[in-house]
Amino acid sequence: MADQLLIGAALGGAGGLLRALIGLGKSLAAKRRIRWGYFFVTVVVAVIIGFVLGALTSISKPIAFLAGYGGTDILESLGKIIKIIPVEIR
Asked: How far apart are CA 42 and CA 82, in angstroms?
């Protein structure tokens, strides 16, 4: 049972990582400026979300992978809706 949870978590994390890399590829293709700090934070959060969703849906390996991918996609969409604005502290 624990092995199945770990496999599901790893697949979910891989799905989250794949989604982050696809987003990076889109930005590079559009020749947008890449904010590397934001990208790495996004990747870490995507992998964490993927791990959690993958562990929760570890009954099926493809579902665990897609849960990580989809969870990251939802996170990115929320970021666009909320319009994440960097805060400067003086």
From this structure: 15
For 43, residues 6+ apart whose C-beta sits below 8 A from its C-beta are 16, 17, 20
d(CA 60, CA 67): 10
Q: Taking the model in full, what pTM does it have?
A: 0.70
Closest to 75 in 3D by CA, of 16, 9, 6: 16
Distance of CA 34 to the CA centre of its chain: 17
pLDDT, tens only, 7-55: 877 888 888 888 878 888 888 898 888 888 877 877 777 778 777 777 7
Domain regions of the chain by residue span: 2-81
Residue 5 DSSP symbol: H
3-state helix, strand, coil in the chain (%, to 5): 80, 0, 20
Structure tokens given for 68: 């990580």
Task: Compute the CA torsion angle 55, 10, 34, 41 (nearest 10 deg).
Answer: 60
